[in-house]
């Protein structure tokens, strides 16, 4: 029986809140109407409200147009940059080797002891690295260098023979 009483009281509270909200909104609308249709100053207030609303509309429309034109301009610029981009392709393989050494191996986070060679734009990496992720990281970094047409990755871990000598070990052994 007690929980039935709680249901009724919560419904009453909700109903009184609803009634209060309706009265508050109705009072606000009445105050606005009396403000705008005041016999002395109402017409001037309505004109000022209309002018301000029109000005706000114009500002919003102009800002939207500016943002639209900027987006179109940015897109055109991106298309032109992509259409006319030039890769700096080194003149010869020795220049490409120097470029790979300076851009990839010259960074402090890359392993040392890697030999770099190139033939017709294909860069070969030889040597021993300590971690398997270094092999993949070096290859990816070399592929990003402009002018590299391919990568021959012959890097290996300590205790693992290089891939280019495996067939020789099997034949000779």
Please, could you describe this protein's structure?
By secondary structure, this protein is mainly alpha-helical. The chain has helices at 2-36, 42-83, 93-105, 132-143, 166-172, and strands at 114-119, 122-128, 150-156. Strands 1-2-3 form a three-stranded mixed β-sheet. The relative contact order is 0.07.
Concise account of the structure shown:
The protein is mainly alpha-helical and 173 residues long. The chain is 63% helix and 12% strand. It contains five helices and three strands; from the N terminus they run αααββαβα.
What labels would you give this structure?
173 residues, mainly alpha, 63% helix, elongated
Chart the SSEs and their pairings.
Elements lengths: L1 H35 L5 H42 L9 H13 L8 E6 L2 E7 L3 H12 L6 E7 L9 H7 L1
Parallel strand pairs: 2-3
Antiparallel strand pairs: 1-2
| Sheet having the most strands | 3 strands, mixed
Strand order of the largest sheet: 1-2-3
Structural class: mainly alpha
Q: Got a strand count? A: 3
The DSSP helix count reads: 5
Morphology call: elongated
Strand content: 5-15%
Report the average pLDDT across residues. 84
Helix and strand string, N-terminal first?
HHHEEHEH
The helical percent reads 55-70%
* Distance between the first and last residues' Cα: 95 Å
Radius of gyration: 38 Å
Oligomer: single chain
**Low-confidence runs (pLDDT<50, min 5 residues)?**
none
């Amino acid at each position: 029986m007690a929980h039935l009483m709680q249901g009724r009281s919560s419904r009453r509270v909700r109903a009184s809140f609803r009634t209060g909200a309706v009265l508050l909104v109705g009072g606000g609308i009445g105050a606005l109407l009396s403000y705008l249709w005041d016999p002395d100053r109402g017409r001037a207030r309505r004109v000022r409200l209309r002018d301000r609303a029109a000005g706000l509309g114009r500002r919003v429309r102009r800002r939207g147009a500016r943002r639209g034109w900027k987006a179109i301009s940015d897109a055109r610029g991106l298309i032109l940059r992509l259409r006319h981009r030039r890769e700096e392709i080194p003149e010869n393989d020795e220049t490409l080797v120097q470029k790979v050494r300076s851009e990839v191996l010259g960074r402090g986070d890359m392993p040392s002891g890697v030999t770099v060679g190139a033939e017709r734009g294909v860069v070969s990496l030889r040597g021993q690295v300590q971690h398997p992720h270094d092999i993949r990281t070096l290859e990816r970094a070399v592929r990003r260098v402009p002018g590299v047409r391919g990568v021959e990755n012959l890097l290996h871990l300590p205790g693992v023979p290089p891939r280019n000598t495996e067939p020789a070990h099997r034949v000779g052994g």
